[in-house]
From TrEMBL:
Residues 1-132 form the N-acetyltransferase domain. InterPro entries: Acyl_CoA_acyltransferase, GNAT_dom. It comes from Lentilactobacillus parafarraginis DSM 18390 = JCM 14109. One of its GO terms (molecular function) is acyltransferase activity, transferring groups other than amino-acyl groups. This is Acetyltransferase, GNAT family. It comes from the Bacteria. SUPFAM superfamilies: Acyl-CoA N-acyltransferases (Nat). Keywords: Acyltransferase, Transferase. Pfam families: Acetyltransf_10. The keyword Acyltransferase applies. PROSITE patterns: GNAT.
Length: 136
């Protein structure tokens, strides 16, 4: 659990530079509980956890890859596992995180709404994916 929480914290600090780092650090205890309750897809190699995707129902609460292993296809593999498991997925990504936004667009997600995150004061893009008939 500690490794997963550390990956979560470091990935959020890196990707969300526009949010006060203390927000993520203070939120960590709540995240530990959420992770314990979530359905996790974990990418592990040689006994080392390199990334994970957490689901709350069909909502992707987060997709995180440990920094040394980013840009190696791990996130795509984790997302692929979730797509093979569920016919529909939703998520939210901050507008100021264009790399993640583009990743999800490239993976077939479409924008469904833009909302203000009242906790952080940042705009978020809500996105959805649905399995197409030719993906069966």
């Amino acid at each position: 659990m500690r490794t997963i929480t550390n990956i979560w914290l470091e990935a959020n600090l890196d990707a969300h530079w526009f949010i006060d780092p203390e927000y993520w650090r203070n939120y960590s205890p709540e995240v530990q509980k959420a992770i314990a309750d979530a359905e996790l897809f974990i990418f592990e190699d040689c006994g080392e956890i390199k990334g994970f995707l957490g689901l709350d129902g069909q909502y992707i609460a987060g997709l995180f890859v440990n920094k040394p292993f980013r840009h190696q296809g791990i996130g795509r593999q984790l997302l692929g596992a979730a797509k093979r498991t569920y016919p529909e997925l939703t998520l939210s990504v901050y507008e100021k995180n264009p790399i993640a936004h583009q990743f999800y667009l490239d993976e077939g997600f479409r924008e469904t709404d833009r909302v203000l995150d009242n906790v952080t004061g940042e705009m978020a893009i809500e996105m959805a994916w649905q399995k197409s008939h030719n993906e069966d």
